[in-house]
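Lecture 7 notes: from sequence to structure.

We start with a single chain of 113 residues. Read the sequence below before looking at the structure.
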Amino acid sequence: QVQLVESGGGLVQPGGSTRLSCAASGNINSIYAMGWYRQAPGKQRELVATLTSGGSTYYGDSVKGRFTISGDKAKKLAYLQMNTLKPEDTAVYYCHANYGSYWGQGTQVTVSS
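Now the structure, written as tokens:
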């Protein structure tokens, strides 16, 4: 089993920045990818960014050029730097491992003035 604990998020003004963190524990050797999905009210959960153990990154089209994922492969830590935030980025952000095999508790990011 893998446990994921998230931190970060909160209220941010449009154009601002924030960073999310996700720490994995448990059977971390089974993890080959970490990242985030997000879900806004009334919308489906969408993949935001993923970092694989091989160092590859994936970004959803709506966040490309604004969000950056990074991490510590050995410690199974992941970070999501979110810049130039827009109101449409408002959502609950869920850390994932292995594309949804494991989930964090979710953290709210609200972009509003």
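The longest strand covers residues 18-26. Keep this in mind for problem set 3.
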